[in-house]
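Researcher: Sequence recovery benchmark, item below. Answer with residues only.
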């Protein structure tokens, strides 16, 4: 009789441990997919911004043909953004893009007739909207990464989740946070 009780207790403990592992694994899979989805949202917005930039450059070029360095910097930053792989590279590309955008808007401020161009205003508005979406996507991504990393680091999960293939993810951090705290300003 005692043997059956011991076997029953062990069986119940094994079932509880199995349910815990199953629930933990499924929760980690869900969080991992959310982080991947959030990263995809960021890349979509970065691509949208990169697609808007050539149009913005063309609108500005007609007014400021001698500002060659500004256009080269924007083009270089755009290429860097499109080729970024992962949060670390995207963060570095984001810093360069912010500097390039500041330069192009500084050029625009120097040409009042450009600021009156309907095409330029529309492109500028779309770019500001895209910057807002990038910021929102970045917050969503970092929130998902935070949840995933916490779940991985919590005890007793930390004892076995890495062996299941789950690793901590990198946050999308930017070296100069003040540069991206808000979208580029449009001043007339």
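Model:
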């Amino acid at each position: 009789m005692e043997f059956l009780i011991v076997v029953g207790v062990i069986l119940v403990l094994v079932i509880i441990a199995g349910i815990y592992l199953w629930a933990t694994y499924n929760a980690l899979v869900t969080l991992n997919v959310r982080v991947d989805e959030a990263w995809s949202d960021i890349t979509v917005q970065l691509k949208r911004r990169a697609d808007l930039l050539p149009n913005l450059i063309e609108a500005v070029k007609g007014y400021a043909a001698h500002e060659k360095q500004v256009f080269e910097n924007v083009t270089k930053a755009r290429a860097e953004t499109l080729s970024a792989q992962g949060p670390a590279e995207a963060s570095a590309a984001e810093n360069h893009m912010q500097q390039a955008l500041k330069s192009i808007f500084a050029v625009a401020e120097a040409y009042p007739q450009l600021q009156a161009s309907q095409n330029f205003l529309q492109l500028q508005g779309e770019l500001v909207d895209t910057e807002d979406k990038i910021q929102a996507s970045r917050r969503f991504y970092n929130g998902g990464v935070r949840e995933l990393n916490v779940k991985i680091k919590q005890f007793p999960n930390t004892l076995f989740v890495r062996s299941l293939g789950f690793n901590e993810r990198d946050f999308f951090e930017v070296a100069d946070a003040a540069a991206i705290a808000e979208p580029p300003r449009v001043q007339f």
